[in-house]
Amino acid sequence: MKLSDALALGRLDAHDQSALARRGELSATELVEAAILRIEALDPDIAAVSWRAYDLARARAAGPLPDHPLAGAPYLLKDSLDYPGLPSRGGSASRDEQPKAAAFAYVERLDAAGLIPLGKSAMPEFGLLPVTEPKIGPVTRNPWNLARSPGGSSGGAGAAVAAGLVPLAHGSDGAGSIRIPSSACGLPGLKPGRGTTVRVRARHVVEDLLVGDALMARSVRDVAAGFALARPDRAPPVTAASPRRLRIAYAARTLAGAEPHPSLKAALEQAVALCRGLGHEVVEAWPDIDGPAADRAERVLWSHIGADCVDAVRASGRDPAACLEPWTCALGDIAAGLTGADLEAALGQLAVLPRQLAAFYGRFDVLLTPTLSAPPPPIGEMAPDQPADLLMERMFGWCGYTPLQNLSGTPAITLPLAWDADGLPLGVMFAADRGQEDRLLALAFELEAAAPWRDRWPAASVAGGA
Question: Is 191 tagged catalytic?
Answer without folding.
Answer: no
